[in-house]
Amino acid sequence: MKKVFVCFCLCGFVASALAGSLVDVQIVDRSSGRALETWSHQGRLYVAGSPGNRYAVSLRNRSGERVLAVLSVDGVNAVSGQTAATSQSGYVLSPGNGAEIAGWRKNLDEVAAFYFTSLGDSYAGRTGRPQHVGVIGVAVFREYEPPRVYQPAPRDFADTPAGAPSARMESRKAMPSAEEKLGTGHGERLDSRVGTTEFRRASTAPFEIVTIYYDSRANLLARGIIPVESIGRRPNPFPGGFVPDPS
Prior knowledge:
seven-stranded antiparallel β-sheet, mainly beta, 247 residues, 2 helices, 4% helix
């Protein structure tokens, strides 16, 4: 059984889920407070980050049980700083709740802020591990539940069989040019209080792994991930000249 972290303070979330069936995962630009738009391309999810902007990984447990979320940023575990593996420590989310993880865990009270930056300035790059810069992963584990033992129901005086116990049902219910690749920096210290708890995983393999790739908007446009036609999607308040007659 591995010691993991549990958040005391729960945060607000954007209503719409972007990724994950058991845990909703969103990337939030902390400069604007808004979740970044997600683009789907060839079965992968992408978000466009703005260089210099701080961000957070927003996690919300959709289930009625505790889950463990192991967070990897650029191939590095966001709690321990180790090269990421799904067997490592993460964050325990209570049923229906969640948190915004805003940085690299430094101690039980602080994180070093995540921010979009150049590959050379990224934490993974500065620690000699640039191979996986540009991806955020969340490995989600269910909690182990010991088997239930049902005792035979007592028989009445006439020795007629009592009703069999019913098992409780669990609800699981024109092409722009490319820029330098984005990475995640190790920024200033932020208050982020957590505690520790014990969590026994139901399996050695995660229930799901949510993967979100990121880069600058210019790079995603250059790679065809964001369609070029989307550049002109936003309405222009002053698109014309004089007032025409209605049809």
